């Protein structure tokens, strides 16, 4: 789950991480009023979308007067920003963050992520802040300092000093402040079950402060039951309507750009199904895992979500019955196909618990269902059916 920059900074304050003052605005008038309340002569008007690269896309503007704040707010609000993280469709700006400016001495990068190779939370820092860290990693990897933190020990003063020295800080007072900053970010990461905590840029000012000028926090969806305060920060306008609807029914759904809808039980099997569709020349329209506890009604809902995508020209149902029984899936498939009037080719592959009963239900349904013997056969058949329909 993602949050906006202003929400991330509210959380940072709770952990002693220094950030600048700022106000949220939904309209141009609110933006001007917000600027008036901030005790500064320099403002930054920032678009709030769940994507990086806002500055390059024209979503971050510096203002030296209230008139400039108004002009920038008018320009950015309602604008569709296209960045390297939004995709070509971009994201529409509905919220602004009006923040105080500051006198920057140097820009750095700081971030935390779980390194699955070592099983440890790894702190990364770089003297190259304010630019894409991926570009730094590719072109000058030696400028990125990495410190893996032992979970049995946690964050220690040594880690903070190593990071600060590693990115070129020399002043003792600055190193002390930076170390406290890094510790606060680590504590936030652990306490709130983050998957990513990223500050780009982290800046030092000419009066010797260490400040998070930007902030990106991602949270583990599976841990949200422990953090109702984080769950409340969810912005439905930043998420796909289909994905939100699917989540209500316990379905894991992600929309893609292809034309073959997928209904699968198990995340690994769903990924494998998508791969084999591509292997045989097709393009998956979605990732959809109905999970092990799906009911007939859940399967019907999954079908309706798949068919709500106008690009879908065929559907592949791939079920390996374990906890989820094949007959339950079959009943859901038949019920959905009849209720929704499925008019696209429907290929079904069933295997596992109650498979004979499941196939019997499908065969006696009176529907034009294309049966498949195995996953490869299913992929070939759905790709051929879709291409035949398009031809």
Care to describe what's here?
Helices cover 37% and strands 25% of the residues. With 391 residues, the chain is of the alpha+beta class. The chain has helices at residues 5-14, 28-37, 66-76, 133-139, 157-166, 172-191, 228-231, 241-248, 267-279, 296-307, 326-340, 355-363, 375-390, and strands at 22-25, 43-47, 60-63, 80-81, 91-92, 96-100, 104-115, 120-126, 144-149, 194-205, 210-212, 216-219, 252-255, 260-264, 286-289, 314-321, 346-352, 369-371. Strands 7, 8, 9, 10, 11 and 12 form a six-stranded antiparallel sheet that branches. Strands 1-6-2-3 form a four-stranded antiparallel sheet, covered by helices on one side. Strands 14-16-17-18 form a four-stranded parallel sheet, with helices on both faces.
User: Roughly what is the average pLDDT, rounded to an integer?
Assistant: 89
Amount of beta strand:
15-25%
Q: Determine the N-to-C terminus distance.
A: 41 Å
Helix residue percentage: 25-40%
Largest sheet: 6 strands, antiparallel
Our Rg estimate from Cα atoms comes to 25 Å
How many individual β-strands?
Answer: 18
Poorly predicted runs: none
Q: How many helical stretches?
A: 13
Alpha-beta content class: alpha+beta
Shape: elongated
